[in-house]
Amino acid sequence: MKEIYSKNLIYREVDGTVEQIEILYDLLKKRKYSISHAELPSFSDHREFVEKNPYRYWFLIYLSEEILGNFYIQFDNSIGLNIKDKYYSYIDEVVHFIERNFKPNKELKSKVAPYFSINVPYANIELKKLLNEMKLTPIQCTYRVNTDDKNC
Q1: Helix (DSSP H) and strand (DSSP E) numbers for the chain
Q2: pTM metric for this prediction
Q3: Strands 117-119, 78-83: parallel, antiparallel or unpaired by DSSP?
């Protein structure tokens, strides 16, 4: 397992151990906001997802041995930041860690932006406020189309 120490935090690469699967599921259960799912997946589905690791990079974040959350970087250069509310004061450090340690994939017009972007749940006002205070540039607001199979 790759482990990186940076300032106050420790980053441990997700490699699908049973312990990591359990930690990630616990974080998922406690998450206040979600983009990817409306209902909590079963533990079995979650385990399968983690074992397949669909991300370019995926790290658990620790303060000493206390879990703060995790982040992942997708192949399209988008970032998922999942930090427990009480540790939001470390978001700036996590974002700077990503900037210093990872390079965006090469641009692919209309598919991959030449920069990193952070996905933020629409209802997460506090995270949006913190990212604005960090002078990150908002670039879009995405809406889900609620398509009903009966109407297709």
Answers
A1: 4, 6
A2: 0.87
A3: parallel
47: left (phi over 0), alpha (psi -120 to 50) or beta: alpha
What type of residue sits at position 76?
Answer: D
150 token code pair: 């009966």
The residues with which 3 forms a beta bridge, in sequence order, are 12
Q: What CA–CA distance (Å, rounded) separates 72 from 60?
A: 9
Q: Which helix (H) or strand (E) covers residue 61, if one does?
A: strand 57-63
In the chain, the amino acid numbered 47 is R
Contact 68, 85 (CB under 8 A): no
Q: Where exactly are the structural domains of the chain?
A: 3-151
For residue range 54-86, list pLDDT tens digits in order. 999 999 999 998 999 999 999 999 999 999 999
> Which distant-in-sequence residues (6+ apart) come within 8 Å of 114 by Cβ?
77, 104, 106, 107
> Strand ranges (DSSP E) for 65-148?
66-73, 78-83, 117-119
88 Cβ contact list (under 8 Å, min separation 6): 126, 127, 130
Which helix (H) or strand (E) segment holds residue 46: the answer is: helix 43-52
Considering only the top CATH level, what class is 3-151? alpha beta
